[in-house]
Amino acid sequence: RRRAATERLATVGRLAAGVAHEISNPLSFVKANLVLIREQLAERGLAGERSELESSLSEAALGVERIRRIVADLRGFAREGPDEPCGTAVQESVDEALRLASLRMRRIAVRTSVPAGLPAVRMCRKRLVQVLVNLFVNAADAVDEAPHPDEARRWVAVTGALEGDEVVLRVADGGPGIAPTALAHLFEPFFTTKPLGTGVGLGLALSHEYVTAVGGRLTGANGADGGAVFEVRLPTQAGAAGCDACYATALTPVPMARGA
Ligand code: ADP
Predict the structure, then answer these.
(1) Ligand 1 test: best mutation among 181, 186, 209, 222, most atoms within 8 Å of CB?
(2) Residues 224-235: pLDDT tens digits?
């Protein structure tokens, strides 16, 4: 049953990548038409109505931009690529992972403190994003799982710091914490405490594999206030550029067709 659940999830993943591709096209003409309408408004000088229409158009454009970024992230995330060692910008990866996980983090306060100046780390961007998405989704699951959800505990915090020659990312949450019986098994494949159909127990096992493969460490514990704290330690990669074989191309803007 676990294998069937895993296969179903893999299929959903492939479908999501296909859906992301299909959304790009209509999205590009929605965006182009918004630009056209704005230009026409300016030309016709619709004085009184203009400001209200302008703000509606701006809101629509913001919405379109948000969809475009999520779609671009999803497409990049789903793209296969060789696992070459490369330098990855940490703050951008955290932002990208948060955008992807935002689909699952509704009504959860997310606090981030990841400085832009952190050095690049020696890990493929795609993999770093995957590790972070796993940690964010687990944190969201934990926050939602609390028996009587206390609004004040609906938070996830991500921090980043340079410690020696490692970048340390910590993901903490306001959930009930890691069950004592789970602590020793967190990184075992197929270990899950979630109901069948929700968890398959591969997220942390894969994340652990990815992080240790580049000489880093991934650990999980409970914080002083009871919630879980996961720590990712990654070696820095001084002066390295992004690896376009794996991911950098994913963020190129969706081409815009005029009209349509
Ligand atoms: P899955 O999410 O499919 O269960 P994971 O490998 O990501 O698989 O996680 C394994 C187990 O680790 C979870 O089922 C849960 O028991 C525990 N766990 C992971 N993250 C947290 C967290 N933030 N708070 C509490 N427990 C967690």
Answers:
(1) 186
(2) 988 999 999 999
